[in-house]
């Protein structure tokens, strides 16, 4: 996995893997690091995908929410966010155990698409990933033009 100057990982690329019989997915070797073998898995509240993030990113989301919301909103958010987050470690074979309920809620069955998303990565069913790409194509193209890509 690439590192920024502040040593935070950058997850990039798209990978396709199959879940094994125990609901484990192999994490790409380029995303694995001795510094980050534990992750938090959360269901994305707006999309049919899972977001997987290192502990420091997970913690910073709670801190960012506190800075951007009222005390009441923060309590509600934190209760939902922390209650549905699952901590998971990468095993010696580079696999991450995915929570069964999270997979059911996102349509992930036997195949999974892993997509880099800067300081975190996402897990999608192939069907949902294809739909998301199609729906977001125009937005991506517009923003790409704005940033000179």
3D architecture notes:
The chain has helices at 55-68, 71-84, 100-106, 126-146; strands at 2-3, 9-10, 14-18, 24-26, 38-43, 49-54, 86-89, 95-97, 111-117, 120-124. It has 149 residues and is an alpha+beta fold. It has one domain (2-146): Transcriptional regulator MraZ domain (Chemotaxis protein chec), CATH 3.40.1550.20. Strands 3-9-10-6-5-7 form a 6-stranded antiparallel sheet, sandwiched between helices. Strands 1-2 form a two-stranded antiparallel sheet. Strands 4-8 form a two-stranded antiparallel ribbon. The two termini are 23 Å apart. The model is unreliable at 2-6 (pLDDT under 50).
Task: Summarize the SSE layout with pairings.
Layout: E1 2-3, E2 9-10, E3 14-18, E4 24-26, E5 38-43, E6 49-54, H1 55-68, H2 71-84, E7 86-89, E8 95-97, H3 100-106, E9 111-117, E10 120-124, H4 126-146
Antiparallel strand pairs: 1-2, 3-9, 4-8, 5-6, 5-7, 6-10, 9-10
Tally of individual domains: 1
The CATH superfamily title: Transcriptional regulator MraZ domain
The best one-word shape is globular
Low-pLDDT runs: 2-6
Tally of individual helices: 4
Number of strands: 10
Helix content: 25-40%
Q: Any idea what the radius of gyration is?
A: 16 Å
Instruction: Give the class from helix and strand content and strand pairing.
Output: alpha+beta
- Sketch the topology as an H/E string, one letter per element: EEEEEEHHEEHEEH
CATH topology term: Chemotaxis protein chec
- How do the strands of the widest beta sheet line up side by side? 3-9-10-6-5-7
Mean pLDDT: 92
N-to-C span: 23 Å
By CATH reckoning, the class would read Alpha Beta
β-strand percent reads 25-35%
CATH architecture: 3-Layer(aba) Sandwich
Q: Give the oligomeric state.
A: single chain
Largest sheet: 6 strands, antiparallel
